[in-house]
What we know:
By secondary structure, the protein is mostly beta strands. The protein has helices at 2-35, 67-77, 171-178, 269-275; strands spanning 37-43, 49-52, 61-65, 86-90, 93-97, 100-101, 106-110, 114-118, 127-128, 144-145, 149-152, 155-161, 164-167, 190-193, 196-201, 203-206, 213-216, 219-224, 227-229, 246-256, 262-264, 279-290, 295-299, 307-320, 322-327, 335-356, 374-395, 402-414, 423-426, 428-436, 466-472. The protein has four helices and 31 strands. It has a 23-stranded parallel β-sheet that branches. Strands 6-11-14-17 form a four-stranded parallel β-sheet. The two termini are 52 Å apart.
Amino acid sequence: MEPCLKFKKSHVVRGLLAILVLELLSLRVAECRTIAETIEYPALNCRKHSAVLTEFGAVGDGKTSNTKAFKDAIEKLSTYASDGGAQLIVPPGKWLTGSFNLTSHFTLFLLKDAVILGSQDESEWPLLSVLPSYGRGRDAPDGRFSSLIFGTNLTDVIITGNNGTIDGQGSPWWKKFRAKELNVTRPYMIELMYSNQIQISHLTLINSPSWFVHPIYSSDILIQGLTILAPVDSPNTDGIDPDSCTNTRIEDCFIVSGDDCIAVKSGWDQYGIKFGMPTKQLVIRRLTCISPDSATIALGSEMSGGIQDVRAEDITSIHTQSGIRIKTAIGRGAYVKDIYARRMIMKTMKYVFWMTGTYNQHPGTGFDPKAFPEITGINYRDVVAENVTYSARLDGIKGDPFTGICMSNVTITLTKKPKELQWNCTNIAGVTSNVTPKPCALLPEKEGVDCAFPKDRLPIEDVQLKSCSASIAIA
Length: 475
């Protein structure tokens, strides 16, 4: 009987060992399956190389600074610029960081539930010199803090995701600004300078210290699918500010802001005139804006390099101060011309149309009092507005009237307590057709007019995105 018992024990041991081996193999297989997870996304260009932020020591607890991890990751991935480029994947978690710089042929991708948090430690925000087309900071005369995500002289740079979030944690900055405690200008959330082939898309951006998205001195820019959120009383939290940029497409964005949802700029007074770089060939479409104290789309006030060929369509404004507002002043010089807007829907507005020739904020006393701006060729058509307080306030400049204004097929329904003077017009000239309430005498009715909107397409409109992917490991 003893040999038989030994035989049975040995079989039991072997069986247990086999089960253990199978369990280990199944765990390894499950582990391998996590590595095979693939993300897919549309982009201007795809990348050959990929890395995850945690590979560089990042900790997503919302408390640990990851500034070094971002910088190390991007420095490493920059070495692949000439070999198909690289993408940095930000996984789910809260990733606290100060300012960091991007590189060319690079994609920053935020997965769903990934949150980049802006540090509240000023030492993590390097100082930069003032912008040459501005001559001073917007908040203070001296320099400015670098943006949370910054880049200069780049080609082919993408910031996108599966609706990941970038949170600027702006509240402490707003308090310092209001208390006049800042000696330099607050950081923006995203700023790219002297760059081309830019894509910023499919993200949620919240609580920037100041402006959210600021491409400047750049070209060939695609901004799409952004949700931008800030308290409606937060200071200077412009949504998207294309500044001295050419060939830009902004589409499918939802913005709640304490300032203009989109502000088109090109430099400030004598500094912008000297720099001489306009914003032109700009398409804005399918925008929804909520901004009770500011504009849906502002042209200016910093427009001293010029603004030309702006095309806005399918715009929705809700509880917003104005639709498309032109802001300028003596000293700005340059021009705002060839502006086209159609298919605008507005609900609960202070103004439908607003133009201001006395926006007298200047970088100093050195502006040229003979630098008169040229405002001409402003076209609006197919506008429906409800619950409106003022139909229009249109104030040109004495001796420098705003001309070539055209409005057609406009229906404005007033609030229960509208202002008695619905059209306040000075120093302007133009025509209207099928507009109610009846416009001012400086905009006489001309039957059969259909205000212009270009039939050609800008180069940026024909840019097609590629289907890109990356394989990542999620624990």
